[in-house]
Write a structure and sequence with these properties.
The chain is α+β, with helices and mostly antiparallel strands and about 800 residues long. Helix content is about 35%, strand content about 25%. The protein contains 24 helices and 32 strands. The protein has a six-stranded antiparallel beta sheet, with helices on both faces. A five-stranded antiparallel beta sheet has the order 2-1-7-6-4. The protein has a five-stranded antiparallel beta sheet with strand order 9-8-12-11-10. Strand 15 and strand 16 form a beta hairpin. The relative contact order is 0.05.
Length: about 800
């Protein structure tokens, strides 16, 4: 379970030495377990090539853990993988590890971390005093500037109300803040004069602006307060000028912090247009100032995303709600990258929106990583659902276009190696993204030179990435038409991967990126390696199944001989037909079988059996059972029950079968005409169709299946076969269904038999197999005998000779 966990897991002893380091921890850090286990995880640098540990931070972490406190934050080491890692560790009492913890990659949350860091920096460096109060008007947060204005420290006032912290002057501030809570409207330029910090500070003057703080539903959840100390500004103009200069310096620092963040920051007018320039946005998109202003910023959005982003932005502008949207932006360096936009409205004292402040964060790496995982999951499902190698390769091509590639082509590779690195074979599958011109018809055969990506992938047996200039024309396309198509489509990068089966490269898959699709990267190559591995495994499995099935079908075909003709049966007017349909829908073979042969005394032996299982072993067992039954029946000509009993004893002692159903019987002549005498070992009920076309189930009691208890008695049954009647023997694959809650399958089979009873016997059997409602995917066996008009004198003579 630890090895399969989707996060990094580790454990330390009391000295900080590593006791556990699972595979995900090794992958996240780039440090294999053998390099880490048994060494001090906190406080000392590792061996060359390992992590560079921040000894001070690591010592502080270990001290907190030994003190019984949980610790979390950035991992205090620069690891070989280059990733930014977050960890959480908790002390563990009792025997065993002293500390257990988890590791997680912070790469995808980096923009969020930077945003929070920016907010903290803005809060602390703002050129005014800032405070936040909850609805009980208790300090929940305050910056250092407000403590410098009012006295005391930030920690001293947290949890207190202004009157508790400042006495009589604080009570006036409370009254001012209550007005904002009462009607939810901001209050600005409010002048306060007095003594703060429990009345112990000197006499001062302030201007205060208070704003309601709302949650996502619009409910007021607190009050924000902005305080400016104007005490000295009221004394002299010179001092006021100095204050203004200092404020300007702080504002400049504030602006620098905004510009330093990794997310682009922009300000737009109340109507949503860009009235102010945003150099950070233009650095992303490459637009000029004139191109960006007004509504020009929308031109930098990908055409497929532009309409949805415009609609979402105008909806936010109309309603005043917060805005969030993900779309592709044109990159100043070419191509498109995914960005997440967020914006909030800035309101005046009357609650009107006066402008919007927003950011654009680059999330392209994380977005494309998720996209690759989705493509891998869909491709795996599609490939595994196919039943033959070509179908699996087709499923792969249909899955990756257009999500991952603009064109996907599959080549069936000649297994005989070419000369000079040349690869030859046949083209198999082509899929092209919508909107692209269809590629020229491919020649049946291909020849790729040594420098072609497919040739290199086949020789190296791994995926090949070409993101640079294309090889010469004679090595790349093979035809002038394909070369010209590549130019028109703007093809700029290629991935090729081999498909391996039985240790040989049997196919190659090529992916093309064209136009404004981002060029393939090493991460995309890793995806293609995984795709090819899964297709290779599926192809190998399918080929194994097909080989097994071919052998089994050959075995079954060799054993299931044609029934005897009417002339060879010896009983005038009898006709026999048989049908066998393997479970091809699931590429399976089974143990269903039939037999019909003339016994030495002139009777016609009939048998239909079903050995459990759907594999080569079941087919082999079927062959053994059929051979033993024929030998026992032919040698003894005893009653069917005796033959089945002897077969059960022999097969059980030789351990040939564990579970087989079988109906065996003989058609013999009596003075009254032909009769069918049979015994059933748990097999489906025979059906007799009269000359009038009405079917009747011969539902006499059946005995236990073969292979269960060879000592149990078996019984015979007999039924007359009137002129023009049809006897039907079959296996359960003809009628069983996966869902049959009302147990109507047998009744519906009888209805099907009645509907085709008037057909000639060969068409009768064909229609039963073709029109069956069964859906279990099992083998189907049908064995039918039809009686004609009897010549009583001739048959009596035959009967007398057989009796003698």
């Amino acid at each position: 379970m630890i090895d399969a966990a989707p996060v990094g897991l580790f454990a330390l002893d009391e000295q900080g030495c590593v006791l556990l380091w699972n595979p995900v921890a090794a992958e996240l850090t780039g440090l294999p377990a053998e390099r880490v286990l048994g060494r001090n995880g906190f406080g000392t640098p590792s061996s060359p090539g390992g992590a560079t540990v921040d000894a001070v931070s690591a010592a502080a972490v270990l001290a907190d853990l030994r003190a019984g406190r949980r610790v979390e934050g950035r991992f205090p080491a620069a690891v070989p993988s280059g990733r930014v890692l977050w960890f959480r560790a908790v002390p563990r009492p009792g025997p065993g590890p002293a500390v257990v913890g988890v590791l997680r990659d912070l790469s995808e949350t980096r923009p969020g971390d930077e945003a929070f860091a920016l907010l903290d920096a803005l809060w602390e460096t703002a050129p005014v005093g800032l405070a936040y109060f909850d609805t009980d008007l208790r300090f929940r947060r305050a910056n250092g500037h407000i403590a410098a204005i009012d006295g005391g420290t930030v920690e001293d006032r947290l949890g207190l109300t202004p009157d508790e912290a400042h006495g009589e002057t604080g009570a006036r501030v409370v009254a001012f803040l209550r007005e904002v809570l009462a009607d939810g409207r901001p209050r600005t330029r409010h002048r306060v004069r007095g003594r703060l910090w429990h009345g112990s500070s000197h006499d001062q003057s302030w201007t205060m602006d208070a704003y309601p703080v709302r949650d996502e539903s619009g409910a007021v959840v607190g009050v924000g307060l902005v305080v400016v100390d104007v005490t000295e500004a009221e004394q002299t103009r010179d001092q006021l000028a100095a204050v203004a200069a200092e404020r300007q310096r702080l504002l400049t620092r504030y602006q620098s912090l905004v510009e330093a963040t990794s997310a682009a920051v922009w300000i737009r007018a109340a109507d949503g247009s860009a009235a102010e320039d945003s150099p950070s946005m233009r650095a992303i998109t490459g637009q000029s100032r004139e191109e960006y202003l007004g509504w020009g910023f929308l031109d930098a959005i990908h055409p497929d995303d532009r309409a949805s982003k415009r609609a979402a932005w105008l909806d936010a502008v109309a309603t005043g709600h917060g805005f969030a949207h993900t779309a592709r932006l044109r990159s100043a360096h070419g191509g498109w990258k995914w960005h997440r936009a967020r914006a909030v409205a800035v309101r005046d004292e009357n609650g009107r929106v006066v402008e919007w402040v927003g950011t654009e964060s680059d999330i392209d790496a994380g977005f494309r990583a998720r996209q690759r995982l989705e493509v891998l999951a869909r491709a795996t499902l599609a490939v595994n659902a196919a039943h033959d190698p070509e179908g699996e390769l087709t499923a792969l091509a249909e899955t990756v276009v257009p999500e991952f590639a603009d064109l996907c082509r599959v080549y069936l590779v000649d297994t005989t190696a070419g000369t000079g690195g040349v690869v030859t074979g046949a083209r198999s599958v082509t899929r092209t993204a919508p909107g692209l011109e269809p590629p020229p018809p491919a020649a049946e055969r291909f020849v790729f030179g040594a420098g072609h990506p497919v040739s290199r992938a086949v020789r190296s047996r791994t995926a090949v990435l070409d993101a640079g200039p294309r090889p010469p024309r004679d090595e790349w396309a093979g035809t002038t038409e394909m070369w010209d198509w590549d130019n028109r489509a703007g093809m700029h990068s290629t991935l090729a991967a081999p498909v391996v089966s039985a240790g040989e490269v049997v196919a190659a898959v090529m992916f093309l990126a064209c136009g404004d699709r981002p060029a393939y990267t090493d991460d995309d190559r890793a995806l293609v390696v995984e795709l090819a591995a899964r297709v290779s495994a599926a192809v190998e499995h399918t080929r194994t199944v097909q080989r097994t099935r071919e052998v089994s079908l050959a075995l079954q075909t060799a054993m299931l001989t044609e029934p005897p003709s009417s002339a060879d049966i010896g009983i005038a007017g009898l006709e026999v037909q048989a049908r066998y349909l393997p479970a091809a829908a699931e590429l399976q073979v089974g143990g269903d079988w039939y037999d019909a042969f003339r016994l030495p005394g002139g009777d016609l032996a009939l048998a239909v059996g079903d050995v459990s299982g759907h594999d080569l072993s079941a087919a082999a067992t079927m062959g053994q059972m059929r051979s033993m039954l024929r030998a026992l029946a032919y040698d003894t000509e005893r009653e069917p029950s005796d033959v089945l009993g002897r077969l059960d004893r022999v097969a059980s002692r030789l351990e040939v079968t564990g579970f087989t159903t079988l109906v065996y019987g003989r058609v013999l002549w009596t003075p009254a005409g032909p009769v069918f005498r049979w015994s059933s070992a748990g097999h489906p009920t025979p059906i007799l169709v009269g000359a009038d076309g009405v079917p009747r189930l011969l539902d006499d009691p059946v005995d236990v299946v073969l292979g269960i208890d060879a000592g149990l008695d078996r019984h015979d049954h007999e039924v007359a076969l009137p002129p023009g009647s049809t006897l039907l023997l079959y296996t359960d694959g003809l009628f069983e269904r996966r869902r049959d809650p009302d147990d109507t399958a047998t009744t519906e089979l009888a209805g099907l038999v009645a509907s085709v009873a008037d057909l000639p016997l060969d068409r009768f059997c064909n229609e039963l197999v073709r029109r069956t409602a069964a859906d279990t995917g099992d083998d189907i066996v049908v064995l039918a005998v039809r009686t004609g008009v009897h010549d009583d004198v001739d048959q009596a003579g035959q009967s007398s000779s057989r009796s003698a």
